[in-house]
Amino acid sequence: xxxxxxxxxxxxxxxxxxxxxxxxxxxxxxxxxxxxxxxxxxxxxxxxxxxxxxxxxxxxxxxxxxxxxxxxxxxxxxxxxxxxxxxxxxxxxxxxxxxxxxxxxxxxxxxxxxxxxxxxxxxxxxxxxxxxxxxxxxxxxxxxxxxxxxxxxxxxxxxxxxxxxxxxxxxxxxxxxxxxxxxxxxxxxxxxxxxxxxxxxxxxxxxxxxxxxxxxxxxxxxxxxxxxxxxxxxxxxxxxxxxxxxxxxxxxxxxxxxxxxxxxxxxxxxxxxxxxxxxxxxxxxxxxxxxxxxxxxxxxxxxxxxxxxxxxxxxxxxxxxxxxxxxxxxxxxxxxxxxxxxxxxxxxxxxxxxxxxxxxxxxxxxxxxxxxxxxxxxxxxxxxxxxxxxxxxxxxxxxxxxxxxxxxxxxxxxxxxxxxxxxxxxxxxxxxxxxxxxxxxxxxxxxxxxxxxxxxxxxxxxxxxxxxxxxxx
Length: 473
Fold this sequence. Notes:
Strand content: 15-25%
Radius of gyration: 24 Å
CATH topology of the largest domain: TIM Barrel
Helix content: 25-40%
CATH class of the largest domain: Alpha Beta
Strand order of the largest sheet: 11-10-9-8-7-6-12-13-14-15
Distance between the termini: 45 Å
Number of helices: 15
Number of domains: 2
Order of helices and strands: EEEEHHHEEHEHEHEHHEHEHHEEEEHHHH
Oligomer: single chain
CATH architecture of the largest domain: Alpha-Beta Barrel
């Protein structure tokens, strides 16, 4: 006899309406009264279909209950007990994923000495002395050729310049982009370019180049003077806020072609998310502000502990609900953390991997070695090829097999796994010494944050669905 059982889903409410987030498909499904009644009747036990129909017949027509059960079976909110559960199976992609983003670490040198830096601080994984400190023009050109070769038939590729402090090697940025644009024209493609900088070296010549070539810019900045100068200091201990402030104002005033964002590293001592957002977005005028907890071993003084994650979550939630109010009135807010998650929910993303590292995204070290991403650039352990010899497909496939979510047993029962997929490889390596490990220290945080974003998404779907159309592309 076939019995009915609840499927794998997460229930939540949005704008007073009941919803479920369907884990196997990463779909969001609004429930009507009959659907709520069916799921409530199933509870945590198995029920024979006719018994279920009889139990609800006093409230709903029999035909409606049967149709509801059929609908819930189709979306997998309900399943038949004797039907095998679909479980993720670790396997490489069926076809080669074209490269969409190449990050060039054009220098491993920086003019700041940020205490928490994963590249230079206590958690570094690359021995800088073994690699050239600056990428040369020839390696940059080879990297561009590698990028287009790996991009396949993709009409657009993204070239990102990174460091160290990226602008220390401005000469190579300029020549590399000129060559990339030349090659893109010859190949009938488009190259989108961006860079990350600490803003200490921004000057008129560089901003003119940024504007002329429509280069996207992300500024690494931790807030106001007191927040910025806590860890983002020069080697003599002097804070950097007063140095970067006029440069940022000049950049924001002159670079109007595309939005300029700020990226904030949160530490145990710097968790006033809301005041940081207000300063960077409202006072300085960044188009968007994104926040990330510091990537570090749990023993460090600046590592965020459990109470810190709780404080961070509360502020994230308040900003998320503020973002919702802006969205409902058709205005831009600028809290990129919620926007990015809303986009993933809308697109029904169900990840086998937490990000594109080693797939559609790769990082290049100063000597041309290709790594999983920019955070591993220069690490021999995480090397998967070079720009001259190409990608070692055996290494790439081995990495993808070992890091597939099916091999992360702690994730197998988590309803938030379609969005999270275990979290950042570099953070796992730094925190646990193994990039294959899921980031268990913030599992509950991820679940609660994802629930908040689902509530925001459902409310938009109810009250201003046209706003979500921007994520359809």
